[in-house]
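It would be a great kindness if you could assist me with a short task in structural biology. A protein sequence and the structure tokens that stand for its backbone fold form the material at issue. I should value your view on which stretches of the chain appear to form regular backbone elements. The record follows directly beneath this note.
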Amino acid sequence: MRGVVIEAEWAPKNPEELTPRQRDGHWAVYANTAYRNPSASLRMLPTPENPGPHEVILRVGACGICGSDVHMFETDDDGYMLLPYHLRAPVVTGHEISGTVVAVGTEVTEFAEGDLVAAEEIQWCGRCTPCRGGYWNQCQFVEDLGFTIDGGFAEFLKVDAKHCWSLNEVAERYGSAEIALEVGATCEPTSVAYEGIFTRAGGFKPGSAVAVFGAGPIGLAAVALVSASGASRVFCFETLPGRRKLASDLGATHVYNPAEVPAAEVIAEQTHGRGVAMAVEASGNFPAVMRPAEQALAVGGKISVIGMDARPAQLRYIDHQLKAASTYGSLGHCGSWDFPNVIALMASGRIDMSLAITKRHPLERLVDAIDETKNRSDGKVLVKPGITSG
């Protein structure tokens, strides 16, 4: 099969701090402190076969390009990746995955050949203390599709069935398996938004105002989710006009360029001084966003931090105290409730993430598509191994 493999030089900045697992397996907790000079190529790889008892093999239908994928290709002045997340290279990248089941293990009962599924990125063990406590995305032995084990920028993928969720009802909703697979590839970023807004931060009361900072794919998913959940006003702050249009299409009621208007002031004006019940950080630009988000909160308001940024940011916790406010850090998704609830919203038509999809590329154009995505002007960009160039 064909697959895109990323390679990089293993050069940890602080090798004395590595555990044996990290040192011997070149398993980086933060790629930006361990891997440099990345390169990627399309290769012929062994096609997965003979699934284990609990595994399925998928023909990849679509795989989304995430900002994290872009960060693997971007480097600092010393050549280190900008990705502040796990990595073990070389690896087939891609973690926003949907596909068709083409083979099932002997103990798999929930799926059959021909089923459409979305696959979780986070491959939790289910046995460690965090997993047993319900924190699967904090698994002590986590592996990540497209980061530490082979992912979805390939024609086929072998994965444990416990990490897959049926898209058959989504196909019924759209009347098309192809559209269901495209929408299914947005399940992972939408579940990341769901995790931060509802699972971690506990959501908000219907009728409240909510602000979303950033209208990349996760920010767009956040807009769709809070709109479907009863927010009376959905503010979205995004510098790029194309993404502002997508935010409006997905349910934002007030859309602004934060370079032109002060977010906290416009929120205060539009809410008659009450502020927002929740501010969602989805830009990955903490220094620019966190203070305005804090200033925009209503009494009892919450900040859900979903974007990723290794830089420090300013907060004044006396403002948190005076407003009885809270900040919630969020990472990834928890499959047992995020994925099925997101898929149920998609299947019912309450959210339509097909509106966020702006481009589709064949597998051989992945590296070019990554370069195009670096300008952050698109919505969700998909790679579809089954289509060809031209």
Q: What stands out?
A: The CA atoms of residues 31 and 343 lie 31 Å apart. The two ends are 21 Å apart (CA to CA).
